[in-house]
């Protein structure tokens, strides 16, 4: 059963192409977050490498790992040692030819509380995820943990109100969004402010519409590892918002940071009592939402 209050954290990091170094770094930062009182902690999307989806290259499938191997073993041991919940996004090799962009939710005893597979897969310039990832088949899930009921969505899922709504309806108190999003350097001056603003606004809207806490964990740094490209400048700006969209913690665009905020379930209930959006939903009129278009 959830406590009335617990502390959550998102960790914003610069990551590189050496998996062992990224693992050591993330373990160390999770330990630091726990030392600051965090009880549920998320690291960024695809933590173990640079953002390899900037190109379509079959060699990158070598980065993937089977379930319950390197990442799970390491973070499971740490979660059990520290008594915290850890959200660990990783590149999953399910079988030959089937790969997912996934996240473990590891409970305080080191067991798997849940597994999420990214449902929405983008295909944009230098975000060629459809080449690598099979869409998730586990649905939108609320994961009960010994600290609280949490939902984990991943990056491109951020833009979909349906994903947030269904996860919240399952009882999630917090929606975590491990993320890898940034600017194309050549576009930043013209489009960057609006792109970043839209990213924050849509997730703050999910918090308001569902009366939930929202926590986004992004990476930072210019990842320019392909010849003859400008790379991607990951914009950081990780944040935690409360159930009225209020910003409880906000990171910079360019520094490695730990953000911590308190989840207050009494406050969440009070917000939902005064803004009863769930009560007033016209579920009898929503059937067309499952259509691709209404035409």
TrEMBL record:
PROSITE patterns: CN_HYDROLASE. The keyword Magnesium does not apply. Pfam families: CN_hydrolase. GO terms for biological process: putrescine biosynthetic process from arginine. Residues 6-265 form the CN hydrolase domain. GO terms for molecular function: N-carbamoylputrescine amidase activity. Keywords: Hydrolase. Signal peptide: none annotated. It comes from the Bacteria. The keyword Repeat does not apply. SUPFAM superfamilies: Carbon-nitrogen hydrolase. PANTHER family: BETA-UREIDOPROPIONASE, NITRILASE C965.09-RELATED. This is Carbon-nitrogen hydrolase.
């Amino acid at each position: 059963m959830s406590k009335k209050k617990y502390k959550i954290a998102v960790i914003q990091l610069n990551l590189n192409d050496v998996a062992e170094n990224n693992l050591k770094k993330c373990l160390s930062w999770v330990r630091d977050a726990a030392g600051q009182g965090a009880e549920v902690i998320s690291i960024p999307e695809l933590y173990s490498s640079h953002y390899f989806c900037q190109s379509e290259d079959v060699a990158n499938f070598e980065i993937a790992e089977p379930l319950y191997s390197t990442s799970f073993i390491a973070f499971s041991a740490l979660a059990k040692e520290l008594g915290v919940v850890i959200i660990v996004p990783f590149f999953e090799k399910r079988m030959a030819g089937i790969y997912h962009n996934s996240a473990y939710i590891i409970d305080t005893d080191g067991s798997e509380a849940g597994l999420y597979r990214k449902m929405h897969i983008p295909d944009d310039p230098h975000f060629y995820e459809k080449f690598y990832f099979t869409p998730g088949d586990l649905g939108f899930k609320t994961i009960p943990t010994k600290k609280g009921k949490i939902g984990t969505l991943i990056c491109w899922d951020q833009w979909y109100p349906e994903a947030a709504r269904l996860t919240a309806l399952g009882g999630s108190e917090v929606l975590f969004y491990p993320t890898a999003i940034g600017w194309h350097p050549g576009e930043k001056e013209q489009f960057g402010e609006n792109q970043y603003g839209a990213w924050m606004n849509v997730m703050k809207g999910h918090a308001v519409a569902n009366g939930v806490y929202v926590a986004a964990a992004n990476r930072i740094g210019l990842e320019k590892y392909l010849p003859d490209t400008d790379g991607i400048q990951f914009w950081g700006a990780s944040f935690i918002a409360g159930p009225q969209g209020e910003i409880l913690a906000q990171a910079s665009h360019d520094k490695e940071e730990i953000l911590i905020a308190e989840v207050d379930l009494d406050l969440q209930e009070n917000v939902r009592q005064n803004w009863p959006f769930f009560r007033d939903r016209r579920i009898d009129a929503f059937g067309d939402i499952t259509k691709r278009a209404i035409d």
